[in-house]
Design brief:
2 copies of one chain form a homodimer. Helix content of chain A is 65%, strand content 14%. Chain A contains 6 helices and 3 strands.
DNA sequence: ACTTACGGTAAGTCATGGCTTACGCAGAAG
DNA sequence: CTTCTGCGTAAGCCATGACTTACCGTAAGT
């Protein structure tokens, strides 16, 4: 059920921007905020959400905190997607055919 | 940029439930509403969002509308995920190493 | 020690969006 | 033709959440 958190985390545009900024390289909160049209506290709050969705992780670097992408959240999402790919497609088209005949 | 709509569509729990109900077999709006704790109009509105995210499609069956899963939305999401998988990981860990040394 | 820089948290504001009821339209049924 | 069933849409309500400013703790620099 962990993919739910990932969906809500990445549903917000600002949060996606932050996440995609980390895609290039790890960054501090200040750096991330500079690249966004919102305040630094806002970025902090977004990072909290992203972290609890296991999409990023942050570790102290002296005075600052360096955030980087974590793949666990993405992995959960990938598994969710995969489960949709193979299954339910035969039973599915069969059901369509059945209902069409019913008309 | 179409994955954005997919994220927002699947971020809502009710919408995910509806989507996953369609995973088994195509269903009408009434059938979907019966399986959810919300009203039928609410389900209609959710289906509208899911449809514009290309996650489902509906076609008239006489009096009713039969909705079924459409894979385009999922495909866009999958591509987005894939782009995260390979790239940016070498440059990424290199950057971590660089910053650690800077301390 | 004092000051400055960085970042997390608290509190409050405002917009978004998910829900409801009410309504209207189209197809099926009688 | 009238009635009933199934859905979509409109309008309005209310909770959630994204943002702000203000504040506090901690590490670094002087």
């Amino acid at each position: 059920m962990a993919y739910a958190e990932v969906f809500t985390a990445l549903a917000d545009p600002t949060r996606r921007h932050i996440f995609e900024a980390l895609r290039e390289q790890p960054r501090t909160v200040g750096e991330l905020a500079a690249g966004q049209p919102v305040s630094r506290p806002a970025v902090s709050q977004h990072l909290k959400v992203l972290e609890s969705a296991r999409l990023v992780s942050g570790e102290p670097r002296g005075n600052r905190r360096l955030y980087s992408i974590k793949r666990e959240g993405l992995e959960e999402l990938r598994q969710y997607l995969e489960s949709f790919w193979s299954d339910a497609l035969s039973a599915y088209s069969a059901e369509i055919a059945r209902r069409i005949k019913e008309e």
